[in-house]
Amino acid sequence: MRRYETIFITLADMPAEETEALIERYKSIVTSLEGSMIKIEKWGKRKLAYPIEKRKEGFYVLFDFGGESKIISEIERNFKIDDKIVRFQTVKIADSISQEEIEKELAESKKKAEEEARRREEAEARRKEEAETRKREAAAAAAVAPPPEEKVVEEVSTDVPPPEEKPDESVDGEAEQVEEKEEEGKVAPEAEPAEAEVEVEKKEGEE
Q: Which contiguous run of DSSP H or E holds residue 80?
């Protein structure tokens, strides 16, 4: 039994359910031909080294398994006719591998996966605990904080009294000047000369 690694790239825009179904399909090809799957790594979406059919990204998957060369022939035959597979490559990494070595690898891979899952769970628990702590601290700070002071806004009256009317001095002055001119225009009655009176009296006496 030889050990192989196969890397294949699927379409990057496929739904997650379709990607999982595709991975399970090719896994079943390995196991149906008496191969032993050691590990499956989903590298996820990555940028392609160069565009392939105008595609710049793909979803990368790695199979690490033990088996005979007939597995490679069958799996690559299916890759070639599958329009959801962008590229693939298979490399032989060991000329022989025993079932005991495979089981050891599987046990180590399982242990590693469990440790990673535990670390993720612990990290998620810490994140939730920190969020709850911040929430409690914020609630406590809000409870002890004094109420905000109410700002007293003075009302400003918008009613502006009209300006006092000042007497028009120019009009009054003109009126006074008119009155003065009128008084100046008045002519005093002429007094009769005294001589005239005397002459009249004389004429009357002569008559």
A: helix 69-81
Report pTM: 0.57
2-11 β-sheet, strand order: 36-52, 55-67, 2-11, 85-94
Distance CA 81, CA 105 (A): 32
134-154 residues labelled b (16+ CB within 10 A) or e (exposed):
eeeeeeeeeeeeeeeeeeeee
Transcribe 140-152 into DSSP letters: HHHHHSPPPPPPP
Token code pair at residue 141: 């700070």
Residues 41-98 have pLDDT tens digits of 999 999 998 888 888 999 999 999 999 999 999 999 999 999 999 999 999 999 988 8
